[in-house]
Every structure is written in C-alpha cells, then in structure tokens.
Amino acid sequence: MAINKNYLQLEFGSGKFFDYSKEKKEDYVEHTSSKGNTSYRKYYEEVEGILESVSVYDGSFGQQISMNIKNGEEVYYVPVDLYDQRGNVATYAESLIKILPHLEKGKLTTVRGYNFTPDGEKYAKIGISIKVDGVKIKPEMTNAYYKNGKLVEGDIPAIEWVKKLSKNKPSASSLEKKDDYLLGVLEQQTERLKWEGSQEQSQTNTTSKPSTSVPKASPKEAFEPAGNYDDDDMSDLPFG
Known about the structure:
It is a single chain. By secondary structure, this protein is mainly beta. The chain has one domain (4-193). The protein contains two helices and 15 strands. The strands form four sheets. Strands 1-8-7-6-9-10-11 form a seven-stranded mixed beta sheet, sandwiched between helices. It starts with a strand and ends in a 48-residue tail after the last helix.
C-alpha cells in the first residue's frame, strides 16, 4: 500500500494538532477564521507512531521543528513553530527542545500539545508532552529564574527584567542568551535525530539550520501570552 502523508498544524489556543482541508470531510469540523473564512479541521488529541526523524525546516510562516512519525501506512509531519512574533524561541518550541535529548529514532513516540490554566493559577501552562514506549518524558534541562530577587540556578539562562518607562520588561541581552542556548541544543539534537539516507523514503521535508533572523510569525502566535519563567510543574501536564 502507498504511504499516506499527513501534514499537521498546531493550534496555539488549544494546543491540539490538526489536519486542514478546504473541503468538508468525514471527521473534520467546520472552522471559521477571524476574517470569516470557512475551512475544516480534523483534530488529534495525540499523534502516535514510530519516530523517524526530527528536523528544522522552512515552513510557510517561518522555521519549524518537525517530527516525522510513522504509524503503519500513515506518516505524520508534526510541526512546532520555532519563533514567536517577537523573534524569540516560542513557548511550544522551548518545551519540545527541552525534551529532544530523551528522544530516539525507531521508538514508539506519542506527542500531544497543551495550553491550559490550572485552577487557582494566573499563568497558562503551554507546551509539548511526549511519551516514549508508553513512559512520560520529563525535560532534560531546567530554566534558571529569579525569585524574590535571587537567582534560582538552572541549565537555561534566566530572563533578566529591567524597568523601562515604569514597566518591567525582559532585557534583550538575557533573551538572546536564552535563545542561543536553546538553539544550540536544537542544532545538536536535530543532527542526532536527522533523517538517514538508508531509511525508507517517507521523508520529504528539506532540513535547515535554525536561523537567528526574525521570520514571519503565524497568525495563531500573534497574541501569544508572556511565558511564566518559573521551572515547570510537570505533575499538572498531560500524560500525568
């Protein structure tokens, strides 16, 4: 049988991956954009199969991290936008990059996105959750952050806040240090998890190195909320 290729997208607001269609299809739901355009989407609570590769490629809205997952005759290209509108590593991408060191090609991999606000909390939890061979994966690295003016150590450089016009804003230099660290990890891990020429030819994406230039942001990220820079509480996340 022929391989059926499924090019998914990630809906920022819900954290769900979906397949897009201009035409009405079975199992697809109608979606109306903010401009009134109607399309159809098939949502996936999770995507599961054998991980064949992870790569960075140039998508329609800028660079994306793409996981190539095969389940029988179905191949899923599962993308996460690398940058947000401000040109920094996006929230979903950061979450995925922190997990990449635990992934292995050829393993049963289950992927889902999440975006929810736990009861009683101010900030949303946004990211990617992954199981390998049925076991939930925890991030390989932690974020450094400031709490009550004191630095809490972590692997990823902390965001430093400065006051400008009576408002606290993240400093450009600390954002750059954080992004440089994450992009370094991404480049190393995509080299390790890249497509090999000896593998069966279900891969079609053209890979590229992460760029530090600012790409065009996708509409779903245009109003991305500010991240919570405290270390993640994994107990509340999907696959718990």
